[in-house]
Each structure stands twice: as C-alpha cells, then as structure tokens.
Design a protein that fits this description.
The protein has eight helices and two strands. It is mainly alpha-helical. The radius of gyration is 23 Å and the shape is globular. It starts with a helix and ends with a helix. Forms a complex with TatA. Its main location: membrane. It comes from Paenibacillus riograndensis.
C-alpha cells in the first residue's frame, strides 16, 4: 500500500470516528432534553422514597434546584445513550473484525442496557441505603445537628449509583473479550490479585471519602469479577469444544483422502 493510500485510510478512519462521535452527541443531547421532561416525576419519586424520609432537604444556592433537574436528566440520557454508544463503537471497529466476531459483538449490545439498569437498581436499592444509614448513624452518634442540602444528597447518591451501574458492564466486557480470544479464564485467574487491586482502587476513587462506601462498592465489584471469570469459563469451554470438533472433522477429512 502506498503512503498516499495509507494517509487516505487514516483520514477516512478519522472522518468515520468523527461521524460516530457526532451521532453519539446528538443522541445524548436528545436524551438530555427528554430527561428534562421526566426529571420532575423522577425527583418526586426519589425524595418520597423510604430512604429519603426524615430529611428536610435545603437549597443552599439559587442553582441547586436547577442543578438537580440537570443531573437527573443527564442520568436518564446516559441510560439511553450507553447502548447506542456501544453500538457506534461496534460499527466503527466491525470492519476490522471477522464475521463471527461481528456477530458476537452485536449480540451483546442489547444486554448493555439491561446490565446498566440492573446496576442502577442494585446501587440505589442496596448500596446507597446502607451507605446513607451508616453515615447518618455516625453523624448522630457524634451529636451533630443534621442539615442536609439537596445538592449534597443527590451528589452522594449519584457518586455511588452511576459509577456502579457502569461497572456492572464488566461481565459483558469480559465475555466479549473472551469471545474474541483476547481473554480466557486461565489468564483472568492468573491476574486476579492485580485485578482485585485495580477494583479496590476504582472503588476508593469513585465513592465518597468514607470507609463504608468504599467497602460497599468494593465487595460487589469483586463479586462481579468472579462472576465474569465464571462467564469467561463458560464461553471458553464452548470454544474448546468447537475447536475439538473442527479438529476431529479435519482429521476425518484427511483420513478419507
């Protein structure tokens, strides 16, 4: 291939990438606009949930109310955009994949949304109430008067819920990389200590600065990793069985010659 052809190829790839990014931005903005229309009922549901009862939430700035609507709208837009982002990523890299790899990747796209919603549900209904209960218990045991701002309450919530929802995609990513034969359960078990360290580091970074939040996020992440290893083993065993079948078919074909 000539240098000019290579340069044209790079330019074509960059043009395609820019086009995909524009698509993603358009969908994200559209989701943001739609999220603003549903922000109020979602907000009312969140502040009337059992875990929010007993709090008198205050606005400490003129922008707190608007900021909450925007944050909720962004969360809605993210939930809508994540599967579309994954699809655009697949569409960008699919020309370089084999047919079986393209089929495998496309098959996983719908589950991105499912896992994201499961992550949100797990984080909001399990992790967030436990973290909130712990912090309130410590505050009251110190004899401090509780005055919570609406911005602080929702920031605490989103700092737990959104990152954990995104990290729920880990099993899907591992299955896909196993399908592409980039990862396998043997390699995942061998790198377990390093993976655990990385997951603990991620949990500390994404959570509020208290031990219980770190602990409540770290444990699900470690369980997700082990579940990912299990799924990788399932895919890997099927690959080995397929390889043996192909090898046996090739041997029989050679013997009949």
């Amino acid at each position: 291939m000539s240098l000019e052809a290579e340069e044209m190829s790079v330019v074509d790839h960059l043009t395609e990438l820019r086009r995909r990014i524009i698509y993603v931005l358009v969908v994200f903005v559209a989701g943001l606009v739609a999220g603003l229309f549903v922000a109020k009922p979602i907000y009312l549901y969140l502040i009337h949930a059992d875990m929010a009862q007993g709090f008198v939430l205050h606005a400490f700035s003129f922008w707190d109310g608007i900021g909450m609507y925007v944050k909720i709208a962004m969360a809605v837009s993210l939930a809508v955009s994540v599967p579309f982002i994954v699809y655009q990523l697949w569409a960008f890299i699919s020309p370089g994949l084999r047919p079986v790899e393209r089929s495998a990747a496309l098959r996983y796209v719908p589950y991105v949304f499912v896992l994201f919603i499961l992550g949100i549900a797990f984080a909001y209904y399990i992790v967030f109430p436990m973290a909130l209960s712990f912090t309130i218990t410590i505050t009251r045991s110190m004899g401090l008067e509780e005055t919570y701002g609406i911005a602080q309450y929702f920031s605490f919530m989103f700092s737990l819920v959104i990152p954990l929802a995104l990290l729920f995609e880990l099993p899907l990513v591992v299955m896909f990389l196993t399908k592409l034969r980039i990862l396998n359960p043997l390699r995942l078990r061998k790198m377990r200590r390093y993976a655990y360290f990385a997951l603990v580091f991620i949990a500390v970074v994404i959570t509020p600065p208290d031990f219980i939040s770190d602990f409540l996020v770290t444990i699900p992440l470690l369980i997700l990793y082990e579940f990912s290893v299990f799924l990788s083993s399932f895919v890997y065993r099927k690959q080995l069985a397929m390889d043996r079948e192909l090898e046996a078919r090739y041997v029989r074909k050679e013997e009949t010659r």
